[in-house]
Design goal:
25% of the residues lie in helices and 27% in strands. By secondary structure, it is α+β, with helices and mostly antiparallel strands. Strands 2, 3, 4, 5, 6, 7, 8, 10, 13 and 15 form a 10-stranded mixed β-sheet that branches. Strands 1-12-11-14-9 form a 5-stranded mixed β-sheet, with no helix packed on it. The structure holds (3~{S})-3-methyl-2-oxidanylidene-pentanedioic acid and zinc ion. The site of (3~{S})-3-methyl-2-oxidanylidene-pentanedioic acid (ROQ) has 10 residues, from strand 8, strand 10, strand 14 and strand 15.
Length: 326
Amino acid sequence: MAAEAVDPPHRYKFPLSKVPRLPYDDPQAQRLISAQQPVVLTGSGLVDSALHWNLDYLSDNMANTQFTVYQSDNYYFKYYEARKIPQQKDFVSPTIQMQMSFPEFVEKLKEAQCSKKHWLYLQQPLTEGVGDKIVQDFVSFNWRWISKQQKENNWGPLSSNLLLVGMAGNITPVHYDEQQNFFAQLRGVKRCLLFAPDQFKSLYPFPVYHPHDRQSQVNLENPNLEKFPKVLELKGFEATLHPGDVLYIPIYWWHQIESLPQKGVTISINFWYKVRNSCQQTVTYPLAASQKIAIMRNIEKMVTDALGDINEVAPFMRTMVLGRVD
Ligand SMILES: C[C@@H](CC(=O)O)C(=O)C(=O)O
Ligand SMILES: [Zn+2]
């Protein structure tokens, strides 16, 4: 039987180097994690106890839990903070957020795969209320290894494990998170693009008070180069994740994650860790780009609170900067 014609992975307008791929116990892998550099770890066994998860198994063992499912008219799932919508009068939610059982999700998934009219993405923190078999699989994760990572790198507490079940072709557009992330792939194949925090200028993030805070305004597949010309200066990394792979996504690193087309439904679980509050960390100069992002965020929040009107923030910041351009 002829192999399925698989679309070549999308070619972007900027260079992409490969994220290093190393055995999880390789000292070089440890050095990259300590240096807050991305790395794909193989052989960690982190989620081996869940590599058998598929739609049927999850339907059978999560039947009584309600899940958050996003629906999109295209294959993009740009995250938005609902609590910030009232401040942004003209905001239009790019996805519809629904609640449903896992069996209902599987049914809607099958319909969407046939109709090709919309896409679905289940995204739900794994908490109590799941079936006993899921709990057994969960407690059998390689917690010894990941807790050692958390301790050795002085990370804060585990904040959540997000279960992600996506359709082939889904894309979570480029954004950064304020947490350390071990991203584990269970089923299907995901292509991840990553950009260092110092690429901030080329990714044009939304304002902090915007519902799309932490998201880039740029569509990387079809960038508006008039509005966002520095996209052409982007230098990125890419990694392809197969079941069992774990990608370390450092805090403040930009990332775009795609469920490869024609590779079927994807299942992933992330491990998000808060950072310890900065008073416990010694500050060394020159500041890292990630530290400068934290400073920029705090300044934008202070100015927004002080002005009391989000429409005054941009003119205020422009006045402040233009008065000092060298
Ligand atoms: C939700 C995930 C993206 C994806 O898997 O679609 C992500 O951005 C993260 O784990 O930080
Ligand atoms: Zn993310």
